[in-house]
Amino acid sequence: MACFADRHDAGAQLAERLRSYRADAPIVFALPRGGLPVAVEVARALGAPLDVLVARRVCAPGDASCVVGAVAEGGSLCLDREAIERLDMEPAELASLAEHEADEVARRLHTYRGEGSGPDLRGRTAIIVDDGASPALVVGAAARHLRNSGAARVVLGTPVLARGSREALEPEVDALVALADLENVVEAYEHFPEVSETTALQLLSDARSFASSPAPADTVPTPLHSEVKVPAGGVRLAGLLRVPRGARGLVLFVHGSGSSRFSPRNQAVARALEDAGFGALLVDLLSEEEEREDELTGDLRFDIELLSTRVVEVVDWLSMEPATRDLPLGLFGASTGAAAALTAAAERPERVHAVVSRGGRPDLAPATVLGRVRAPVLLIVGGDDTEVLALNRTAARHLHAPTRIAVVEGATHLFSEPGALEQVTRLALHEFELYLAPQPPHLHA
Hints:
By secondary structure, the protein is an alpha/beta fold. It contains 14 helices and 16 strands. An eight-stranded mixed beta sheet has the order 9-10-12-11-13-14-15-16, sandwiched between helices. Helix 2 (35-46) links the parallel strand 1 and strand 2 (50-52).
């Protein structure tokens, strides 16, 4: 039995589940064309402006059924590296296919927006709305574009998910709201016709008539981070910096394995640290040009020497900035970023007071470097991430600094299990409170 009469009915039901976001003054983005009738209902219920977010699948040559990636406006890419390797696709071939689809994205955007540009997303909550028919890679590319545009939070709302796609989508967004998981998305709807371009344009026109102005200034949440550009090695690295009044210390997040300053997991930890009085800097260790190259090759994310050099340069920059130079500094490394963080701690022992690793690869740092680390180290690993846990235990034997391994039982590499990331956050906060902002000893009479 179908769950929804049509896309409009599905949108009305989805809007009820998304009402809690109304206080965030969000911007709703529809994945056209099928997502537009759903998104219109959501935007109307939330009193939010509506825009389109165009992303296109990248298919293997001669096989439209084999999706190897997706590209969104601004060139944001999401790739299926396993499929690419299985098909033995050359980087130049993949780049050509992606470029072709990027041109089509630009053409469609012009159809929907004309000469206008998208809304200012800095510090805002962005809600992606789909009817459920878009592949996970398309949604992933769309989410990455929103993060690259400065969205503080990205939420995916869809009436139905194709069974098995949740695991691929959850790492791409801060929250995922779906009303049903079905084997076949179309079965969720009694009436599921193709949405024509004419209908899509009319829906957008109608939506702009009831939500054409930006949210009142007093309802827009204050951005969590300020944008910064950190000079390093002849490039400028994009970062998000937040230093609360009376900050007790500062934590530099060192991303890895293709992650960025918009990593939902690191942003969640950063928000908790800020609530506890710590500043945070989330910075991309690759320039925009390098990131585009890395999306195609995957090489730079494993260049530990390059990443480590960039972390040291960011540490030095923080040591000169008036707002951060006097704050005790901790490093929070994830994946390959953990090796870079530990290397920076070895290079700047007088500046780095503590290092925390989340699902990290400290083993990628040379043993001689690990032996020079002086700051206390906390290695947090998922109990079910057995290979990485073994690698952490091996690396810990080379660390002469105070070192602990904290195992989050039942968690896998991304800590996506219920409550797992919250455990990571509590462990990290305790470590930074211990070494960045220790409590003064009690005086006894």
